[in-house]
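Working notes for the structural subgroup meeting. M.R. asked for a predicted model of this chain before we commit to crystallization trials. I am recording the input and output together here so anyone reviewing the notebook later can reproduce the run.

Input as submitted:
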Amino acid sequence: MYAFFDRFYPHILDVIHGKLDHWETQGTQLYKKSTGKLCLFYVYEGLGVMELDGHSYPLAEGSIAQIPVKRKLIIRNSPPGPLRYFMIEYDYKLIKWQDEPTGFEESPEKRLPFDLVVPMMDHRGLRSDMQLLYRVWSERQEGYSGQAKLLFYQLILRIGEQLVERQKDDSAERSIMDCVNYINNHYHESLEREQLARKVSLSRSYFSVLFKKYVGCSPVEYITRVRLDKAMQLLRGSNKSVSVVALEVGFHDPLYFSRVFTREIGVTPRDYREA
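Returned structure, recorded in token form:
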């Protein structure tokens, strides 16, 4: 993503603020048979739907949508609150630094390097950036075009930074879910926190922090929960002794198993079976 912005050279064409009075003239929807300009559309309040060539994308507070050219566009409000938004119409070229003299090139399909619609988890800063960009553009004081270009560049870099952080979070969550699946399938084996952390290439302390974040409990607590769930199934569904059940679910000390079972379940393994 950052490699794209190394070559990105934007040009602002217009900045529009869609407020309540805007919809009084537009009606309940914004419609374009064929889009003629690239647009970055930011929703700061309300609910709606964007249809692009017949494909629907929900819009909500914090949504960022990019609208390519030559597309059939419909943006509809969803009751009860109309969309309030900023829309930046722009164009851009990609700089070719390797050439002498420096040149430009056009990308095959002009769009920024992220999905057509993305939700921003932390979008308050985006709203402030958009308001400043709109004010600079509307007042049109000396040098406004260059200032607007700089503000736009900062804006999309802020979007890019959030998306990169989200990708890191998604990767971390996948790693933890892989670890959860491993525990579910290997609960009867020896499972140490360091061993599990190595499997997902994380430090022991950071692994514990992420595990608690995505699973809601510590790795040890989760392992214990899985083992006890399996033990309860065996106690009710088989005639195996408590000692054998303990070994089969990963407890190598039957007495320790009984203490943990009684503490967590509220009755002894034997009483649970007979209940």
